[in-house]
Amino acid sequence: MTMVNYVTGFMLSNDGHRVVLIRKRQPSWQQGRLNGVGGKIEPGETPAQAMAREFLEETGVQTDPASWQLFVELDESGLACVYFFFCRDDAAVMAARTMEAEPVEIHAVQPLPDDVLHNLRWLIPMALDPQLVFSQPARLVERVRVAPGPAAAGRA
Known about the structure:
Elements (H helix, E strand, L loop, with lengths): L3 E9 L5 E6 L10 E2 L1 E4 L6 H13 L9 E7 L4 E9 L1 H6 L8 E5 L11 H9 L9 E4 L15
Parallel strand pairs: 1-6, 5-8
Antiparallel strand pairs: 1-2, 1-4, 2-3, 2-7, 5-6
């Protein structure tokens, strides 16, 4: 099985009080829940380039790949790797709008809405923590339990 690489980003207001999130329709386990903006990394793209492209496609806002700070790499047991980014830009937060089927929403960070994906409850505060300096991203491994057989192939 080939590992798939993804990006997820949190566009934050300069004061850290607001965040751009997207209401997911796919995959089914995220349906109706809020997540950061993101998607698959295309061949030939760096994670930062993919983050800027995904943010443009989903929100209509162009950003510089260099403005996105990579802060977590999450290895999902060798099945996928998710690169988590954040960026602070008031103008981008205010300009973000729905461009595709999944609605773009701006939410307060404190408190986060009840229907965010569970890992956003620690990822967003981590991105905002002024005591953390991300000279290298935190590298985490998540244990993903995949059922044997054909159902495992439909995970992504």
